[in-house]
Structure formats: structure tokens, C-alpha cells
Design goal:
320 residues; alpha+beta; D-amino Acid Aminotransferase, Chain A, domain 1; 3 domains; four-stranded antiparallel β-sheet; 9 strands
């Protein structure tokens, strides 16, 4: 009864402190978020946005700084070649806006300008970059780590696989050294992205996000799939949950983004099986909030953290 009262008080406090984020979740998900005892995937991301303040999340969300994190923790993983970085749109080298590169902002999501066969004029790229630099991604939807990333620009070489090899996005959801689900995707939004969810062995789960076309039955995970999964599992040991993104073609595995707030927290896993796999992996007792953060808070925060730990332990048993 005491813990139930604590959870009720925590829900009320969360609504009072973050009413706009609750309303946005309700509009997007057509249900109210569970901010005290999160079980579903979207609720856990919502909980993370409200209460988890791991300082490392800022570095992981920074598209430029995360390259250094990859070099420190997985030096064997190659990254797309970095051609330029800077903090002024006017400094973008005109000669680098050529086919086969992508201009990115380091402090947000979706701020990319792909230079295909007909690269945009320099003035157009500068105008887009100015808009990105003037904006602060993150606060509107609670993705606080993005808002603390220094606004910068970068140009990377696009990865073009050898003839006959497909380029896959392999997005590995992992935590505590274990892999829950893997998004296996091919193509982009402009040429018809397709993708499905797999388990850590590459077996399809028969589900996908609605914005993706289904993969053709003959499409199999690339040879580098198992290596990407193993790297993500190892890197996830120090975290309760992260999504590790790789570009894979053939045996080649390249590191990409490390995602703290996938889909801004507005998508649940697309099937009960996928949801179950993720729930078995994402243990909030490994979170920064329960390891360190709550001890720095007031009495309600500390009491809530103790109650949440008891509830999780009662359901899952001792932390492995």
C-alpha cells in the first residue's frame, strides 16, 4: 500500500512538472503514458526523457562527439569518413558539396542534406545549415540531451558498397550486455525503405514499423550482421538500454549513431513478441537514475526510487 501511494504521488508530480510532454504523448500514442511503473517500450523512453539525466547521453547524442566514443570503446569499428566539421554555415567548403556526401547537423535528428547525383547549390546548403544551427532540437519532445549538444555541422562520405552488395541499416536495441531486437532495414525514405524486426540471431519476428515496406522473403541478414550484434551487446554492458546503429554490407561493419531516445519515444515495439524481448533486456535497475541520480534528489525521489527497485526485483528477481 505504501509503494502504491508513492507511485500515485510520482505520477501526479510528473504530470504537474511535465504537462506538455504528457499531452504530446497522448496525442501521438492515443493513450496516457505510465511515468511511475513503465513497462511498454514507449513508456520507458518517456520515463527516461523525464527522469534520466546521465551526463554521457549528451556525448552519445552528439553526432560528432560520438565518433570519439566509438574510437575509445570499439576502435576496431570503422566509421564513415569525416570530411569536414565546423560551427558556421558560411564555412561549408563548396568543393565538398559533391555527389556521395551528406551534410549533417550534430545536435538534432533528421537534419541531413544528402548530395546525390545533382548536389544542391552552395547557397541552398548554407541556408539549410543556418536554420539547423539556429534551432535547438530536443526540448519540445523531452529529448533533453540533444538540447545540450553544441550546434555544429559535419560532412561525411556516404557509404557505397561494392557492386552486388546491398547496404543495410542494422539498428540493435541492447542493454546490460544483451540484445533484445534488431531492426534490419534496406534503402532510404526517398527510394523506398523496407525493413523488419529480427531477434539477435537474425530470425525475423514477422513485424515492422508501419512506415516501412516489408523486406522481400529472399532478403537475408548480411554476413556482418552477427558481428554488429556482438559489438552492440558488448557496448551495452554499462547501460540499461541504447540503440546502436550500424551500416553493414557484406562482412563490412561501420558504426553510426548511438540513439538514446529512439523515435522520440512515440513508438512501441510493433508486436507482443518484440515487446517481450525488449522488456526482458531493458532493466531500469541499471539506469543512471536508480544507480546514482535518485540519491541526489529529495525525499520523494529517493522513496520512489526505492519503491521502483522493489517492484522490479519482485517481478524479475535479483539483478544479474
Amino acid at each position: 500500500m505504501r509503494d502504491a501511494a508513492l507511485f500515485a504521488a510520482w505520477r501526479i508530480a510528473a504530470v504537474l512538472r511535465h504537462p506538455a510532454l504528457h499531452r504530446r504523448f497522448l496525442r501521438r500514442m492515443r493513450r496516457w503514458p505510465e511515468a511511475a511503473l513503465p513497462a511498454r517500450h514507449a513508456d520507458r523512453v518517456f520515463w527516461r526523457k523525464l527522469f534520466e539525466r546521465d551526463p554521457l547521453f549528451v556525448r552519445l547524442s552528439d553526432k560528432l562527439a560520438v565518433r570519439g566514443w566509438w574510437a575509445e570503446h570499439a576502435p576496431e569499428v570503422a566509421l564513415p569518413p569525416l570530411l569536414w566539421s565546423g560551427d558556421r554555415a558560411e564555412d561549408i567548403p563548396p568543393d565538398l558539396l559533391r555527389p556521395g556526401v551528406v551534410l549533417k547537423a550534430t545536435h538534432g535528428s533528421g537534419w541531413n542534406l544528402f548530395c546525390g547525383d545533382s548536389p544542391p547549390p552552395h547557397a541552398e546548403a548554407v541556408a539549410a545549415a543556418r536554420r539547423w544551427l539556429a534551432d535547438r532540437w530536443g526540448w519540445k519532445h523531452g529529448e533533453w540531451a540533444y538540447a545540450e549538444v553544441p550546434p555544429r555541422l559535419m560532412i561525411e562520405e556516404m557509404i557505397v558498397p561494392p557492386r552486388g552488395e546491398a547496404l543495410f541499416d542494422v539498428k540493435v536495441h541492447a542493454g546490460g550486455g544483451r540484445v533484445g531486437v534488431v531492426q534490419l532495414q534496406i534503402g532510404t525514405g526517398r527510394d523506398g525503405a523496407a525493413g523488419e524486426f529480427c531477434d539477435a540471431e537474425g530470425r525475423r519476428l514477422g513485424c515492422r514499423f508501419s512506415h516501412l515496406a516489408p523486406l522481400q522473403p529472399a532478403v537475408a541478414p548480411p554476413p556482418g550482421f552477427a558481428r554488429a550484434v556482438a559489438i552492440a551487446a558488448r557496448l551495452s554492458r554499462a547501460f540499461d538500454y541504447l540503440r546502436f546503429d550500424f551500416l553493414v554490407h557484406g562482412e563490412t561493419v561501420l558504426g553510426g549513431e548511438v540513439t538514446v531516445f529512439p523515435n522520440a519515444g512515440y513508438l512501441d515495439m510493433p508486436s507482443p513478441r518484440a515487446e517481450s524481448l525488449m522488456r526482458s533486456v531493458w532493466d531500469l535497475r541499471r539506469s543512471w537514475f536508480l544507480r546514482e541520480g535518485a540519491a541526489q534528489g529529495g525525499w520523494l525521489t529517493r522513496a520512489y526510487a526505492a519503491a521502483l527497485t522493489r517492484a522490479i526485483t519482485a517481478e524479475r528477481g535479483p539483478l544479474p
